[in-house]
Amino acid sequence: MRICKDHWAVIRSAIEVRGLSGLVAKDSKEAHKNLMAELEGGAQPPFDPLMSMHWHWHNAALRNGGLYLLSEDPSGKNDGQYCPLCEFVAHAQGFDDKKEIDSVADQILAWCREEGLVPKAARRAQ
Ligand SMILES: [Zn+2]
Predict the structure, then answer these.
(1) What separation in Å is there between the alpha carbon of 117 and the centre of ligand 1?
(2) 2 CA distance to ligand 1 centroid (A)?
(3) Is 101 in contact with 16 (CB distance < 8 Å)?
(4) Interval between CA 25 and ligand 1 midpoint (Å)
(5) Disulfide: which of 10, 50, 103, 117 matches 24 by Cβ 3.0-4.6 Å?
(6) Residue bearing the bigger pLDDT, 42 or 107
(7) pLDDT on residue 125
(8) Mean pLDDT across the stretch 49-56?
(9) DSSP letters along 70-109, please?
(10) How many angstroms separate the CA atoms of 9 and 21, rounded?
(11) For 96, how many CA atoms within 13 A lie in the half-sphere containing its CB?
(12) Distance, CA 97 to ligand 1 centroid (Å)?
């Protein structure tokens, strides 16, 4: 399972317009290092809104769609991997991907403000 390019762009944009890009790992190597640190139970890695969004959609898709999502997508799209958001669009009636991504991004922003990771009065970039 992997988020497709189109949905990844929507997610990145949702993070960026909320002023959260500064919290995102600078590259996949740093994101991987943070993930491994978290899995090993060591020091808490810095919160990454992009990875948080990534795991949110993977978990939600597995919970709602099941383990077939971990198999190869026979359509061959997305390099043969199911995109959790494309699956919601295809199977969850009335699922508005952009709106749902924005909703999750708003929750992440609220949490980041509560935790003091971003200023409480941060404005959305235009
Ligand atoms: Zn997708």
Answers:
(1) 29
(2) 8
(3) no
(4) 22
(5) 50
(6) 107
(7) 56
(8) 95
(9) GSB-TT-GGGGB--HHHHHHHHSTT--HHHHHHHHHHHHH
(10) 13
(11) 5
(12) 9
